[in-house]
User: Fold this.
Amino acid sequence: MSCGKYSPTVSASYAKDQRWWYDHCDEGELYDRDGYDSYGYHHETEKDRAGYTEWDYLGNGQWVEDEYRYPLYEDVAGNWSNKIIGE
Assistant:
């Protein structure tokens, strides 16, 4: 699991619907109707819909066997994907 600049909440939403941003944002706007940017972070709090910042995910990394893993990111990604699928 890679931990990049996208929130796992957005990655899960895009995995379900590639047009998610266009359906939840007014044309030409930088933020969706709830104030989140296309990377999934709120423009004021810098937290995603799960309540974490990008640095929360990155700072939680650790070596597991031969690869560097991000347990918080993986946990939120799994939980958010299950939530999206269940909708």
The longest strand covers residues 62-64.
